[in-house]
UniProtKB/TrEMBL annotation:
Protein's UniProt name: Enoyl-CoA hydratase
Family the UniProt entry places it in: Belongs to the enoyl-CoA hydratase/isomerase family.
InterPro entries: ClpP/crotonase-like_dom_sf, Enoyl-CoA_hydra/iso, Enoyl-CoA_hydra_C, Enoyl-CoA_Hydratase/Isomerase
GO molecular function, a single term: catalytic activity
GO biological process, one term: isoprenoid catabolic process
Superkingdom, taxonomy of origin: Bacteria
Length: 299
């Protein structure tokens, strides 16, 4: 029998995938059919306490919008408080992992007032930070597009696995903004030298390059992915939960990766200001109109 959760409820072992943060019927497995728009984040949990979080907007490559961010934040908060959770696996429904921000949503945000626009920017920053500081081991299984905030998720998990066809990109600068919500995490995962190249040029890069830089830990054929993930999870479950939480917290603290409210607010404010800037507006318009932005040199 499937279950669906209200915010604050626990996900019991054996529950099938469902939306977090709203009521609804239990949808089928992500491979059977695309889930309705009302279920942007799906959670399922096995008997061992391994929770799968599925980003569920396959019709737009799992690009995130405000409902997805809010559902992800609520889900992470509830799972953090659940001592029965032993590990977290993040997946993308359909062909892609996560294609970054939904460009149509960004167009909507451009029409918001300052406070609401800032809150949307803050939600992006907060979702990344909550994932980064989640006290249990976190994994990402990456296929297809992994751009912008999707690459940010890869930076924030403890173990990132990718298929050979996965494609990565830090492409925010091409639409006139900076990847401020994920900047700290990118430098930590990829190193400053590599981040400077890819965050400034907006170049896309493949799974082998991501492996070379340390953004992902292993590149695996699609047919080998599940067995390898299961093996790593089995090793992980041998680790004491309390020791894991303390170890992770100490690593993050020692490397300046635990952001306080003020730091997150500054990142969110910078992100909002850039979206509202002339470059941000032109970059968004150029992307939607499938043309080069005005700052590209004329012939």
């Amino acid at each position: 029998m499937g279950i669906c959760l209200r915010v604050g409820e626990s996900l019991r072992p054996g529950g099938r995938a469902c939306q977090f943060g709203a009521e609804g019927t239990s949808p089928r497995h992500q491979e059977e059919a695309a889930m309705p728009e009302e279920t942007p984040v799906l959670l399922s949990r096995d008997a061992r306490g391994v929770v799968t979080v599925t980003l569920n907007r396959p019709q737009v490559g799992n690009a995130y919008n405000e409902p997805l961010l809010r559902a992800l934040i609520a889900g992470l908060d509830a799972l953090r408080a659940d001592e029965g959770v032993r590990a977290l696996v993040i997946r993308g429904a359909g062909r892609h992992f996560a294609a970054g921000a939904d460009i149509n949503w960004l167009a909507e945000v451009a029409g918001y007032g300052p406070e609401r626009a800032y809150q949307c920017s803050l939600a992006t920053t907060l979702a990344m930070q909550k994932l980064n500081e989640f006290p249990r081991p976190t994994f990402a299984v990456i296929q297809g597009a992994c751009f912008g905030g999707g690459a940010g998720i890869a930076c924030c998990v403890d173990v990132a696995l990718a298929t050979p066809a996965a494609l990565f990109g830090l492409t925010e600068v091409r639409v006139g903004v900076s990847p401020t919500p994920i900047s700290t995490h990118m430098v930590h995962a990829m190193g400053l030298r590599q981040t400077r190249r890819y965050a400034l040029t907006g170049e896309r890069f493949g799974a082998e390059e991501a492996l070379r830089m340390g953004l992902v830990h292993e590149v695996l054929a699609a047919e080998a992915m599940e067995a390898r993930l299961a093996a790593i999870l089995d090793e992980t479950l041998l680790s004491a939960p309390g020791a894991v939480a303390v170890t992770k917290d100490s690593f993050l603290g020692a490397n300046g990766l635990k952001l306080d409210d003020r730091q997150m607010a500054l990142l969110a404010h910078e992100g909002w200001m850039q979206r509202a800037s002339a470059e941000g507006r032109e970059g968004l318009a150029a992307f939607r109109e499938k043309r080069r932005p005005a700052w590209y040199p004329k012939d």
